[in-house]
Design a protein that fits this description.
heterodimer, A: alpha+beta, six-stranded mixed β-barrel, 16 helices, 10 strands, 18% strand, elongated, B: alpha/beta, Rossmann fold, six-stranded mixed β-sheet, four-stranded antiparallel β-sheet
Chain lengths: 386, 228
């Protein structure tokens, strides 16, 4: 073992040019792997965050005509008792109606939230561009686009009209920007009791919304929730169904990233295997004499496995550093017009470690063929042919 | 005296479609502590005999005994072990490992057979290098010394495991006559001092005359033997 390692290390050290070439080959492969993988992961995470990160991923609604979910507290507790990776559960009482200010009317969705819960999903506090969250009843938040349409300002009183003809005055305490203009234009956010009172709904909600720790398990989580609630009157939707187009985009991206990585890996393995195969030819004289002196075939093949291992380790280390450097400079120099990185930097250390590890393992595997060749080499061939 | 090596009815055929018989029914043995040479024209089969004695090549028919043990039916690993511990090789071309220093090359057979060299073995290697006059270049890479020095390194290497038998194939084939002279003096001294059996192939009669037994090979057969 020690001898094989010693000889391998000496072989590597003695042909520096070749060693640098192989290490560079592996390093570039690994760096592309790390760079592309990190980039795509970052892209995916930011895309998910932008599309489903600040919205309900799993939504429980009622199938009844009045859309009411009663005894909602118990149901929320049931959901929270599940251990399937649910986070951020929020209840909502939503009603369609109209808003009137001066002579302008506009269709709206009045959303009654428990602010502390809704904040975890919608990040309302962070999206406030003016004013503050309502602290008492009959206070509301209005979206940025609706504000511009109605030309309202903080402290203005607007009128909410229900389909049943009831109207109620509420006070604007703040404006939000959820970065989606259709929401900014239609949602009026208030506390739950205000919404329930305006629409004479009693203590019921219209939906229970939640997010999953891993957004891609939303369907599984939704199923678990449906089983737990076990009610034919309730419907559990998840974003994978309602947002199928986004999902297919995301999985297409993942698949293409895997393809790229597989081919990079393949070319790295082939590169190492071919260079090491040439090394066996070059070193056949040395191997012949080592065998004449009594080195065993197993040790002779170990020499090349060690060569693969050592080259793989160096290549992986340099490759990871190079890949991180590339990723870092990409996030520094490829910027949006507002100065934020085009793709946010997201380092998944497990993935990076895995990329390095795969390179080391594949370099060693690539050395198997040369190792077998080396073990089969007959010393007499070398001795006879000089 | 005991026989260190014995060949019984050895024949060797090369090729499968076109068969060339290079050795015909050779019976040959060498005694312990002796100093022998095999001479013959090129193509006579003398190198093939040496390779078969050294277990690097296998006979087509016949039996080979080294140190009383039959070797022609041993498996590769047993042969490797036997070569490492019993036989030292000196070839026409030195076949040193260019990646290693002179001292490391000398220690290599020990390294292969027994693992990491001990202090005693390193001292022995240095003594051998002193014997062949290479103390000053022992830490040079083996490619950074002259041809004669390389061949003397190969001799030191052949002796490190204290083998009972040293097989040498034209060990001075590519050296000038002064170096040749020195090397034979050296081999003779070693034979006397360590009681190592030597079988040396050469085509130079003058060298052969210095050995105590000369075996002449012609067309794959033993033509004559001279014992002095």
């Amino acid at each position: 073992m020690a001898l094989a390692f010693k000889i391998a290390a000496r072989f590597i050290k003695s042909s520096k040019g070749q060693t640098i070439l192989i290490v560079l080959g592996i390093a570039i492969g690994v760096s592309v792997q790390v760079f592309i993988g990190t980039l795509i992961q970052g892209l995916q995470i930011s895309l998910i965050d932008k599309t489903v990160g600040s919205s309900s991923q799993i939504t429980v609604t009622s199938k009844n005509d009045d859309r009411a979910i009663d005894k909602w507290n118990g149901k929320v507790n049931d959901i929270k008792s599940l251990n399937v990776g649910i986070k951020n559960v929020s209840e909502a009482a939503d009603f369609s109606g109209f808003v009137k200010y001066n002579n302008k009317t506009s269709p709206i969705l009045l959303r009654g939230f428990i602010f502390s819960n809704a904040d975890s999903i919608y990040k309302i506090k962070d999206s406030l561009i003016q004013g503050k969250e309502p602290s008492s009843d009959n206070e509301v938040l209005v979206g940025k686009d609706l504000r511009d349409n109605l030309s309202v300002k903080l402290g203005d009183k607007i009128t909410i009209l229900t389909p049943k003809g009831k109207n109620e005055q509420v006070t604007i305490t703040g404006f939000y920007d959820l970065k989606v203009s259709s929401l900014n234009n239609s949602w009026i956010i208030t506390n739950m009791r205000t919404a329930q009172n305006i629409f004479d709904f009693g203590d019921k909600v219209t939906s229970i919304e939640m997010q999953a720790n891993d957004v891609f398990t939303a369907d599984v989580v939704a199923k678990a929730v449906a089983n737990k609630l076990d009610s034919s009157n309730l419907k559990v939707d998840n974003w994978k169904v309602t947002n199928a187009a986004t999902l297919s985009g995301l999985s297409g991206q993942s698949a293409s990233s895997y393809m790229i990585q597989v081919f990079v890996l393949l070319s790295v393995i082939l590169g190492i295997a071919s260079v090491l195969a040439i090394t066996v030819m070059q070193k056949s004289k040395q191997l012949g004499i080592l065998k004449a002196m009594g080195i065993k075939d197993r040790v002779a093949s170990l020499i090349f496995l060690f060569e693969g291992l050592i080259l793989g380790i160096f290549g992986a280390v340099f490759g990871v550093l190079l890949g991180l450097g590339l990723t870092y400079s990409f996030s520094k120099f490829a910027l949006n017009t507002d100065g934020t990185p085009l793709v946010p930097l997201y380092l998944d250390y497990k993935f990076i470690l895995l990329s390095g590890l795969i390179a080391v393992v594949s370099a060693t595997i690539a050395a198997v063929i040369p190792a077998i060749k080396s073990s089969k080499l007959d010393p007499i061939e070398v001795i006879k042919n000089g | 005296m005991a026989k260190i090596i014995e060949l019984k009815n050895i024949s060797k055929v090369y090729g499968t479609t076109i068969k060339t018989k290079v050795l015909h029914d050779i019976n040959l043995s060498f005694e312990e502590h002796s100093f022998n040479s095999i001479i013959g024209a090129s193509g006579s089969g003398k190198s093939t005999i040496l390779n078969i004695m050294g277990t690097l090549d296998r006979p087509t028919t016949g039996e080979v005994y080294i140190n009383g043990k039959r070797t022609d039916n041993m498996v590769k690993n047993e042969l490797a072990e036997l070569r490492n511990k019993t036989i030292g090789f000196i070839f026409q071309f030195h076949y040193l490992l260019p990646e290693f220093t002179v001292l490391e090359n000398v220690l290599m057979p020990y390294n292969i057979g027994y693992g990491r060299p001990t202090k005693e073995i390193i001292a022995r290697a240095e003594e051998l290098l002193n014997l062949v006059g290479l103390t000053e270049v022992k830490n040079n890479l083996s490619i950074n010394i002259s041809g004669g020095q390389q061949q003397r390194t190969a001799i030191a290497r052949a002796l490190i495991n204290n083998p009972k038998l040293v097989l040498a194939d034209e060990p001075t084939g590519n050296l000038d006559s002064k170096s040749t002279e020195n090397i034979y003096e050296l081999l003779r001294d070693i034979n006397k001092e360590f009681k190592t059996t030597f079988v040396i192939i050469t085509h130079d009669d003058r060298i052969a005359e210095k050995t105590s037994r000369i075996v002449e090979i012609e067309d794959g057969k033993i033509k004559k033997e001279v014992t002095s």
